[in-house]
TrEMBL record:
Name listed for the protein in its UniProt record: Cobalamin biosynthesis protein CobD
NCBIfam families: cobal_cbiB (TIGR00380)
Lineage: Bacteria, Pseudomonadati, Pseudomonadota, Gammaproteobacteria, Lysobacterales
Membrane topology qualifier: Multi-pass membrane protein
PANTHER family assigned to the protein according to its UniProt record, in alphabetical order: COBALAMIN BIOSYNTHESIS PROTEIN CBIB
């Protein structure tokens, strides 16, 4: 029950406060990993493994030590500490704020501002995207980051508490920094990409199931089954295919990266993406969060009654 309450408290803090504007631990983590990369970068997988371990494991061990020490004093002190850690790691409100920064200019007809806003959410080139492509890119980002920044954090928090959510968040951050198939990171970033895939495999499947259950279930399951295997990522594929199907919207398809249009598999079916699609995706993630919190509370209550 304490874990469920800490989870609820962490999500409430996120809803009330949002992402810290001045001092965020991930800023310091980014600087540290930059220094580690500068010293250890080699065109070799083992170098990436060593760098990943040096960046992530000390942070996880420190959080685990603090959590254990507080729990020895009082489980409620540990719960408060864990709630703050979850708040710092989860990105529900931040996801909504970034998406709404696209929605508002789109509704106002300011395509240039919408392109600039979506550029802060995705890695593709956005300067030449039309309204539909901007809406599609934003919707994809909401669905995928719902899994990475929200449901993944909740899953690992429920499983391992504060150390689990830190492990997941830092692994996800390193994947975003090093997990690219470029000459510099093809080998060095291999570990970051694969570890993030492993850690988020189960949360991604649960996220896809959540989207399917809260949206157009049959369409979502059909898209998940038929479209997800076509994507390279074992996590993004199920999440975005099920999410697009749940919303009954067509996503995916060609997108510009580094000056070249890349063919990508289709996602979902039905209507063309527009500004309302983004709002629907945000609503789907929000309902999923409420469902997960409810399930956590019911599991905790069942455990208390059984005890």
């Amino acid at each position: 029950m304490i874990t469920a309450l800490a989870m609820l408290a962490g999500m409430v803090l996120d809803a009330l406060l949002g992402e810290p504007r001045r001092v965020h631990p991930l800023v310091g983590f980014g600087r540290m990993t930059g220094a580690i990369e500068q010293r250890l970068h080699r065109d070799a997988r083992i170098a990436g493994v060593v760098a990943w371990c040096l960046a992530v494991l000390p942070c996880v061990l420190v959080v685990a030590f603090v959590s254990r020490s507080l729990n020895d004093c009082s489980p409620w002190a540990d719960a408060l500490f864990s709630a703050v850690i979850l708040y710092l790691a989860v990105g529900h409100r931040s996801l909504r704020e970034h998406a709404m920064a696209v929605v508002l200019p789109l509704r106002a007809g300011d395509l240039d501002a919408a392109r600039a806003a979506v550029a802060r959410m995705v890695s593709r080139d956005t300067a030449e995207l039309d309204t539909t492509q901007v809406a599609s890119a934003t919707t994809e980002s909401v669905l995928e980051n719902g899994a990475d920044a929200v449901f993944g954090a909740l899953f690992w928090f429920a499983l391992l508490g504060a150390p689990g959510v830190v492990l997941n968040r830092l692994a996800n951050t390193l994947d975003a920094m090093w997990g690219y198939r470029t000459p510099r990171y093809e080998r060095f970033g291999w570990a970051a990409a694969r570890i993030d895939d492993v850690l988020n495999f189960v949360p991604a499947q649960l996220t896809a199931l959540t989207y399917a259950g809260l949206g157009k279930t049959r369409t979502a399951l059909r898209c998940w089954r038929g479209q997800a295997p076509q994507w390279d990522s074992p996590n993004a594929g199920p999440v975005m295919a099920a999410g697009a199907g749940a919303l009954e919207v067509r996503l995916g398809g060609p997108a510009p990266y580094h000056g070249t249009w890349e063919d990508r598999p289709a996602l979902g079916e039905g209507r063309t993406a527009d500004v309302d699609t983004i709002a629907d995706a945000l609503r789907l993630v929000r309902r999923g969060v409420l469902l997960w919190l409810l399930v956590a509370a019911l599991v905790a209550l069942g455990g208390e009654l059984h005890a």
